[in-house]
Amino acid sequence: MYEVTTSDETKPVLKLTKIWKCRNADCKAWVREEFAVEQQACPICKGPMLRSMRHLPAVQNKIKSQPRKPKSDF
Question: A Pfam family name for this chain (predicted)?
Fold first, then answer.
C-alpha cells in the first residue's frame, strides 16, 4: 500500500515573480525576469515577449566563485 500525505511540507512556497512570456498565443515559452536579458526575444519562436507575473517557487541565485589560482613555488 502507498501512503497518501497531504502535508504542507511537501508543497513548495510560491512567490509572486516577474516573468517575460511570449506574446504568441501558440507558444508557451516564458523566463524569469532575473534570468532574462535586455530586449528579450522568445527562446523558442524568436517572437516578442511581454512582462507578466506568475506564482512560482522561490529560487536561490548562487554566486559563482572565482577559480582559484594555483599556488606558486616561489
Answer: YdjO
For the chain, the residue count is 74
Q: What was the pLDDT predicted at 68?
A: 67
What is the pLDDT averaged over residues 3-24? Answer: 79
CA-CA distance, 34 to 49, in Å (whole number)? 15
The cell numbers describing 31, all together, are 523566463
Which pairing describes strands 14-22 and 49-57: parallel, antiparallel, or unpaired?
A: antiparallel
User: pLDDT value at position 36?
Assistant: 87
Task: Name the one residue in this structure whose C-alpha cell is 497531504.
Answer: 6
Domain boundaries, the chain: 19-57
For the chain, the helix, strand and coil percentages under 3-state DSSP, each to the nearest 5 = 10, 30, 60
Per-residue pLDDT of 32-64, as tens digits, reads 998 888 777 999 999 999 999 999 998 876 666
